[in-house]
């Protein structure tokens, strides 16, 4: 019998929004070229620093206000995807990487250009990559299935039918609001306040991670076992006291299939004709993997 330690688990989150679409207008006066900052009308909580957004002009006009350094081939188009930093006044800076968008520094922001006419736009939240949730202290996931009583008259024993499955759980982590390499506990607090696009997320809750195995089980070193879920934050709390680390606790319920996945071999990637891996958009360090059987 092997004994596994919970200290080797981890939680990976992917930002998600099923209603993340907003139409607005970028006016000529909304662009500050020097500060590399622009704005448009949107409700508080619609966008959060670190979000990846797709901006598209609704009239087919080229997004002239985005500098050439914001395009992979330096050619401006009517639609593009960037990571954003949102300041306290609702101003937005565009970045090519997630880490830079959390930092929000002027020097790393994409340059902006002045425009001579207003551009109507549609903004949609698009997040393709999963990122580790930093400083997780514990998590719990519960799965349950409804039992439907189908006992008929004259039957001697009660008969039950298996119904729908549901899940719920809790994630606890140290509070942090600035981490350029991972999602932070502060994001969970922000997530529940997103009235415009909802508090949905995708998560991978690892029971066993790769590069870890108990003594004498080195053949299991690269195996991984994790729950794959989609969920909604239903409650988020922050515990603050002078003699302890500030901690965030978030309760969630699942909103779709709950899968217990097992990876016992190296990932297979979808390849191009030249045998190069397909890179995920806006994240050159991640590749499109073929889904394997559980």
CATH topology of the largest domain: Pnp Oxidase, Chain A
Number of helices: 2
Give the terminus-to-terminus CA distance: 23 Å
- Helices and strands, in order, run as EEEEEEEHEEEEHEEEEEE
Overall shape: globular
CATH class term of the largest domain: Mainly Beta
Report the radius of gyration as a whole number of Å. Answer: 23 Å
Most strands sheet: 8 strands, antiparallel
The average pLDDT is 81
Number of domains: 2
In CATH, the architecture of the largest domain is Roll
Q: How many E strands?
A: 17
Output the structural class. mainly beta
Q: Would you mind describing this structure in some detail?
A:
The chain has helices spanning about 100-105, 185-190, and strands spanning about 10-15, 20-25, 30, 35-40, 50-55, 80-85, 90-95, 120-125, 130, 135-150, 160-175, 200-210, 225-240, 245-255, 260-265, 280, 285. With about 290 residues, it is mainly β. It has two domains: about 5-15 and about 130-285, Roll (Pnp Oxidase, Chain A); about 20-125.
Q: Which properties best describe this structure?
A:
294 residues, mainly beta, Pnp Oxidase, Chain A, 2 domains, 8-stranded antiparallel sheet, 2 helices, 17 strands, 4% helix
Outline of the structure:
The protein has 294 residues and is mainly beta. 4% of the residues lie in helices and 40% in strands. It is built from two helices and 17 strands.
Task: Give a topology summary.
Elements: E1 10-15, E2 21-26, E3 31-32, E4 37-38, E5 52-57, E6 79-86, E7 92-95, H1 98-103, E8 119-125, E9 131-132, E10 136-149, E11 160-174, H2 185-191, E12 200-208, E13 224-239, E14 247-254, E15 259-263, E16 279-280, E17 283-287
Antiparallel strand pairs: 1-9, 1-12, 2-8, 3-4, 5-6, 5-8, 6-7, 10-11, 11-14, 12-13, 13-14, 13-15, 16-17
């Amino acid at each position: 019998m092997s004994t596994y330690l919970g200290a080797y688990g981890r939680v990976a989150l992917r930002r998600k929004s099923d209603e993340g679409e907003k139409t607005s207008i970028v006016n000529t006066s909304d662009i500050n070229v020097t500060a590399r900052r622009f704005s448009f009308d949107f409700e508080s909580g619609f966008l959060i620093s670190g979000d990846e957004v797709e901006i598209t002009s609704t009239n087919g006009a080229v997004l002239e206000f985005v500098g050439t350094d914001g395009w992979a081939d330096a050619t401006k188009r009517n639609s593009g995807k960037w990571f954003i930093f949102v300041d306290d006044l609702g101003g937005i800076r565009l970045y090519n990487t997630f880490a830079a968008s959390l930092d929000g520094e002027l020097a790393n922001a994409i340059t902006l250009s002045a425009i001579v006419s207003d551009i109507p736009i549609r903004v949609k939240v698009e997040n393709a990559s999963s990122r580790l949730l930093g400083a997780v202290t514990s998590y719990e996931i519960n799965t349950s299935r409804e039992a439907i009583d189908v006992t008929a008259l004259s039957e001697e024993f009660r008969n039950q039918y298996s119904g729908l499955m549901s899940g719920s759980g809790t994630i606890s982590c140290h509070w942090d609001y600035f981490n350029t390499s991972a999602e932070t506990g502060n994001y969970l607090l922000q997530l529940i306040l997103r009235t415009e696009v909802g508090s949905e997320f995708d998560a991978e809750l690892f029971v066993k991670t790769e590069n870890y195995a108990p003594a004498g089980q080195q053949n299991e070193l690269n195996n991984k076992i994790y729950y794959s879920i989609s969920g909604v934050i239903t409650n988020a709390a922050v515990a603050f006291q002078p003699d302890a680390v500030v901690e965030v606790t978030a309760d969630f319920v699942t909103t779709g299939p709950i899968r217990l996945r097992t990876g016992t071999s190296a990932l297979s990637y979808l390849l191009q004709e030249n045998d190069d891996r397909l890179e995920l958009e806006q994240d050159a360090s991640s590749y499109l993997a073929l889904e394997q059987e559980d």
